From TrEMBL:
Residues 238-434 form the Anaphase-promoting complex subunit 4 long domain. Its main location: nucleus. This is Anaphase-promoting complex subunit 4. One of its GO terms (cellular component) is nuclear periphery. The gene is Anapc4. Gene3D superfamilies: YVTN repeat-like/Quinoprotein amine dehydrogenase.
Length: 766
């Protein structure tokens, strides 16, 4: 082949996929592309040969209907939104695991994750000082490896996976758009810094400029009066977000603190999950066996008395003998003793090393936040409220108290059970007339009193408990703290005779003191944790509302209508497409309008200069004859419709074109359109005066059109009904998807050809 006939762009992979693809999104930093398919699966593929890296199957908890994808600017985390559960999941790029998730009020239709590029000396000093908390706080211990999937996030080898979630200290923001005008901005993808109101319709595209000065939104507004063909308008509204940009250092600092707090709450939640898993069902055996014993026995003697007689006289009734020897058995007793010991010590370790260090770190960050809130001139206008943070600090204090109470309960339970089991073991050996080792036989008066106290306190029947929990006994006291329910504790700790409690009761001033954390003796650890999360959530909410209210709509333009028939295509791929040129503060909107059965690509260019004056320019682009076939001599009869268009970089748009001539084998073309060929100097006189009260497509005939003849930046896509394209100009790659949503081809776009590119090997289609 002569070099002239060489197709531009090198194909590096092709695949037929089993499921229809509904989203594709290139990683900003690596040659990886994320896909979501109709089955609700999220997949990660490599550019080379389109090889699959991993897949995350849909599941009940997260959801099955993916409606948006976005990469964190550092390419380490992939976010996706689910419509059925209204959740946003942040997933690790290294392996298909959810690192964090949160719920939103409405289902998400679009996501955009951007990084702030603004520089200032204040910001730089903050970026450098960010790690001071690492110097002051001990490193959080990794969660144990042997617990279920929940704990995998902080696995032993990488205890700092929690830091992955925090990511780089430079501010980045995940912007979510959804149905009925729902728009929210999350700093670092975790903390909500703005809830934007005043936008109508369901979001189709979003773009937040990298200096945070403007937010562009495209929405689809449905008119319900005519139910047959619902009419849809598109609007490009540019929202003014000056509060965010003028307080950038403060917003960054506050958001970073909140992100630390969210991450720590996640850590505490997982530590608690591990504790619940360490607590085993076998520990309930004692309660259930004794309950059954009560239901079946014929005598009137209470269970407590039966055991007391055994303790004092060494004689047991036949019924108690049957319970101990046939149901509990010596072997079973040993096993139960070991289970209780290992289970309790695991829970104890988790409370001491994880819950306490997590809560202390939480207290540290909340106290710092309170300090920020008291610096009113900087933070008051962002909605930071010191009294709300004070409440959150108090709630964390109550949680720490509850964790300490649990430690005391574990400690006394371990002592009690040890003594009780040791005594019962000897008694059972005697019943079976086995040899009792002399060292086991020694039981002092003190030991006997200890066991008698344990029996008195733990072995009394409670009929009202049977109605609540279906058991008469609550011998095992630790499990109740780990139950995730609103019920009060079955056996709250006994505070009678506690000098501190009596002192507090009698002192009126101390009761109300803000220095003392409130204590909830009746409640479980889970309950206090939920209460703490609620209060912290409450104080994290306010800035989002305040900043959201400061966002003002600067302009609202109606673009065009779409017909009902187009609605069968998946939401994702439909134009319009938004782009923000970071260097020159120009916003572009790409969309197509059908004119004489040719769909022309239109480029709307909004430029804001330094004096804040805005100019709107709009151009339609048509493509001249690319394939000079000799069939049609008159070149003007051959037109191309634009099927899809995306910005490749600030200077280029990637398009997919289709021939309009009705003939067999209509070719599809992948092409690069340089903006320099569209915006030339002689355009200046072809101004289009746009009256924003009218819809743009009603004046399509007046829009200046520019005809572009592509030189060599195009390639025919043979044997493929190409319809959609996804590109990444940083990595210089593109992915083309066919109209049946299953056939994919990937290309390297900027190939330096030396005239000797090897013939492409046809990829075997799977």
């Amino acid at each position: 082949r002569t070099p002239a006939a060489m197709p531009a762009f090198r194909q590096v992979g092709e695949k037929q996929l089993p499921q229809e693809v509904v989203f594709m999104c290139w990683s900003p930093k690596r040659d990886l592309i994320a896909l979501a398919n109709r089955a609700g699966e999220v997949l990660l593929h490599r550019l080379a040969n389109f090889q699959r890296v991993w897949s995350l199957p849909p599941n009940e908890n997260t959801g099955k209907e993916v409606t948006a994808l976005a990469w964190r600017p550092d390419g380490k985390i992939l976010a996706f939104g689910l419509a059925d559960t209204k959740r946003i999941i942040l997933c690790d790029v290294e392996k298909p695991e959810s690192l964090h998730s949160f719920s939103v009020d409405l289902s998400i239709t679009y996501m955009h994750w951007m990084e702030v590029t603004e520089e200032s000396s204040v910001l730089t000093s903050f970026y450098n000082a960010e790690d001071e908390s690492n110097l002051l706080l001990p490193k959080l211990p990794a969660l144990p490896k042997n617990y279920s999937t929940t704990a995998k996030i902080f696995s032993e080898e990488k205890s700092d996976e929690i830091m992955k979630l925090l990511g780089d200290v430079r501010l980045n923001a995940l912007v979510l758009g959804g149905s009925s005008g729902f728009i929210e901005i999350y700093a670092y993808g975790m903390f909500k810094i703005a809830t934007v109101n005043g936008v109508a319709g369901s979001c189709r595209g979003l773009c937040l400029s990298s200096d945070l000065k403007s937010l562009s939104v495209i929405t689809e507004i449905r008119d319900s009066s005519d139910s047959e063909a619902e009419i849809t308008y598109f609007q490009a509204s540019k929202l003014d977000t000056s509060l965010l940009s003028s307080y950038l250092p403060e917003v960054t600092r506050m958001a970073r603190k909140f992100t630390h707090i969210s991450t720590l709450l996640q850590y505490i939640k997982l530590s608690l999950t591990c504790m619940c898993e360490a607590w085993e069902e076998i520990l309930m055996q004692m309660d259930s066996r004794l309950t059954k014993f009560v239901q079946e026995k014929n005598t009137t003697t209470s269970v407590q008395d039966e055991f007391m007689q055994l303790l004092l006289w060494g004689k047991a009734s036949l019924e108690l003998q049957a319970l101990l020897m046939n149901q509990l058995t010596v072997k079973g007793l040993k096993k139960l003793g070991q289970s209780i010991e290992s289970s309790y010590s695991s829970i104890q370790k988790l409370v001491i090393s994880h819950l306490q260090s997590g809560s202390e770190a939480l207290l540290y960050h909340l106290s710092e936040l309170k300090g920020m809130a008291l610096w009113k001139q900087k933070y008051e206008s962002l909605g930071l409220d010191a009294s709300g943070i004070e409440e959150a600090i108090t709630a964390v204090g109550s949680f720490i108290l509850k964790a300490n109470e649990l430690l005391q309960v574990i400690d006394s339970s371990m002592k009690n059970f040890k003594a009780f089991f040791r005594w019962l073991y000897v008694a059972m050996l005697r019943m079976s007339e086995d040899h009792v080792l002399p060292e086991l036989n020694k039981m002092t008066q003190k030991d006997i009193t200890f066991v008698a106290d344990f029996l008195t306190e733990h072995f009394n029947e409670a009929p009202e408990l049977y109605n609540r929990k279906g058991k008469y006994f609550n011998v095992e006291r630790v499990g109740q703290y780990l139950k995730d329910e609103d019920d009060d504790l079955v056996s709250p700790p006994n505070t009678e005779g506690n000098q501190w409690f009596n002192f507090l009761k009698n002192s009126t001033h101390l009761k109300e003191s803000p220095l003392l954390f409130p204590y909830y003796p009746e409640k479980s650890l889970h309950f206090v944790k939920r209460q703490m999360e609620g209060i912290i959530d409450q104080c994290l909410q306010k800035p989002a509302d305040v900043i959201g209210r400061s966002v003002h709509q600067a302009v609202c333009l109606s673009l065009y209508k779409i017909s009902q028939s187009e609605d069968s295509t998946p939401q994702l791929f439909k134009l319009p497409f938004l782009w923000n040129d970071k260097t020159s503060n120009i916003h572009y909107v790409l969309f197509t309008i059908l004119e004489n059965s040719v769909s022309k690509i239109h480029i709307l260019r909004r430029h804001t200069d330094t004096s804040r004056s805005v100019s709107n320019r709009i151009l339609a682009v048509e493509f001249g004859n690319i394939l000079n076939n000799s069939i049609t001599e008159s070149s003007d009869s051959r037109c191309y419709s634009c099927l899809d268009a995306h910005f490749y970089d600030d200077e280029t748009v990637t398009v997919i074109l289709k021939e309009n001539v009705e003939q067999e084998g209509k070719e599809r073309v992948l092409a690069q359109l340089p903006l320099s060929s569209v915006y030339t100097d002689e355009d200046q006189d072809r101004k289009f005066i746009w009256d924003s009260t009218e819809r743009l497509d009603e004046r399509r005939g007046e829009i200046p059109t520019c005809t572009v003849v592509l030189e060599n930046q195009w390639r025919v896509l043979e044997n493929m009904k190409a319809q959609y394209v996804s590109v990444n100009g940083i990595r210089k790659v593109s992915c083309v998807l066919s109209s049946n949503l299953r056939h994919v081809r990937v290309f390297e776009m900027d190939v330096e050809d030396d005239g000797e590119i090897e013939e492409e090997e046809e990829e075997e289609t799977t």
